[in-house]
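Let's practice the habit of predicting before peeking. Look at the sequence and jot down your guess about where helices and strands might fall. Then scroll down.
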Amino acid sequence: MSLPNNTRSDPAITAPFIFPDSLERELLVDYELGGVALNNPSQGLLVQRWTLTLVGDDVTVSPDSGGSTVLFTLSGITELSLAFDQNMHPFVTYILSGDAWYWWFDSLLVEQVHTQMASDVENTRCCTDDKRPQLTASSDIILAYKRGSSLFYRQQRDRYGVEYDLDFSSSLPLNRVGMTNNLRLKFEFRG
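Done guessing? Here is the structure:
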C-alpha cells in the first residue's frame, strides 16, 4: 500500500488507531495483528493480537491464543516495535545501547538478519500498513523513525534501502505508527 507519492497528507486527516494500534504502548511492549502462527500466513494477518515484550534480555512474541517464542536475545535494548510481513515473518525494530537496529526476514538470504541503521536514527517504530487480505500484494512493512527532529520512513518493497523524508519536524519522540479506522497511516508523537 505504502504512502501515496511517498508523502504525508497536508493537512493531516486524523482518525483513531484501529486495534491493537489503539492500545497504549510502552517502550518495551508493542502489539500487532497477525496470523495464526509465526511463519504461517494461511489465515491472513487479521487473526489475533500478538504482543512483543522484553523479558530479561529475551525479545519474545506471544499470540493471544497462548504460548511465547523467544525471537532473539540481546543485552541493552531500550525500545521495541513489532510488525509481520505477508508470510508472518516477524519484523522487530529496536534501540540497543543507543543505536537503532531492525531484525527482518531477508528473502535473498532466506533467514532473519539484524541490520544496524545510521548513528543518528532514533525512535524506530514499525507496522504492516494494510493487513486486509485483498491488499496482501500491495501492503508493506513501514519502518518509521526520527533523525534529529525530522520524520523519515523506509518500506519493505525497497528492502528498507531507500529513505523517504516525510517533510515533518517535531521535537517530540515518535510514539507509534499504524492504521486508523479511516484506513490511513498515522504517525503519533509522545508528549
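How did you do? The two ends are 29 Å apart (CA to CA).
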